[in-house]
Amino acid sequence: MASKHRILQVGSLAGSPSANQRLADAYDVLELWKHTDRKAALAEYGKGITALVTSATMGANAELIEALPDLKSICSWGVGYETIDLQAARARGVMVSNTPDVLTDCVADLAWGLIIAGARRMTLGDRYVRAGRWGQVHGNIPLGTRVSGKKLGIVGLGRIGQAIARRGQGFDMEVRYHNRRPREDSPYGYEATLVELARWADFLVVATVGGPQTRHLVNQEVIEALGTKGIIVNIARGPVIDEQALVTALENGKLGGAALDVFEHEPNVPDALKTSDNTVLLPHIGSATYETRMAMEDLMLENLQSFFQTGKLVTPVE
């Protein structure tokens, strides 16, 4: 019987239906999260490990990459890779893969759920019903705003941004976007600055990549340009928005509302966001459907299998 390939798994993939078990069945897994002294475990067991499994939450920093002298591939469960030190990986000739495309539709669906929930004050209405305040609703609960026919601004017109934009057409919305540069293949209007996009939009959806290059891209100026009736939606990464500027704008009435699936310091969420009647808050569940998590799991395992069989990855990060 052939021996199993040895791999390192940085942390438990508890959000995936069966990834932990499938990895254990197929490979000789060093489960790093079960070792209290990670450095000692890597020093003792790291030699000979050529593949590492991680996620956007757990990442793979330069120290971890350097601790594995034979490492050749990093297979990440999820689309984001800002927590993987790509520079350190490339310097060592280590290939990196993620799981793009398979979560596009579910994240775009959730963005639209947040748009509608934020505009129509759905979570506030839910709290009224649960608290037995139904009879007080008319005249007491603040009025929402219409979604159909409004202006939709998208920050980052990648796979997910495009899926969000397509759904906007079903709501008879005019769509514009901001990227580092215009997309020649896009039918939507382009705004060269994020401030101008925010000033134009009724709804501003953040769908750009995370990482140092986009940290606080949505700053005080952008937030205030969106205005007192505007609603911001974030399904990308929390640090893209300056969270303190967001809180201040909501408290001062300079922003209409915020509907957020991600936060700057997860899982910590400012109390001011929790207590505001103008927010919708979700616990980072953009990809959290059985179908999508299973597809992410399958693709991560497909990348791992491809590496061991061919030396190549199916969905490498370029």
TrEMBL record:
Record-level GO cellular component terms: cytosol
UniProt domain D-isomer specific 2-hydroxyacid dehydrogenase catalytic: residue ranges: 18-317
PROSITE patterns: D_2_HYDROXYACID_DH_1 (PS00065)
Matches recorded under InterPro entries: D-isomer_2-hydroxyacid_DH, D-isomer_2_OHA_DH_cat_dom, D-isomer_DH_CS1, D-isomer_DH_NAD-bd, NAD(P)-bd_dom_sf
Residue ranges annotated for the D-isomer specific 2-hydroxyacid dehydrogenase NAD-binding domain, each copy included: 113-286
Family membership: Belongs to the D-isomer specific 2-hydroxyacid dehydrogenase family.
Protein name according to UniProt: Hydroxyacid dehydrogenase
Species: Bordetella genomosp. 7
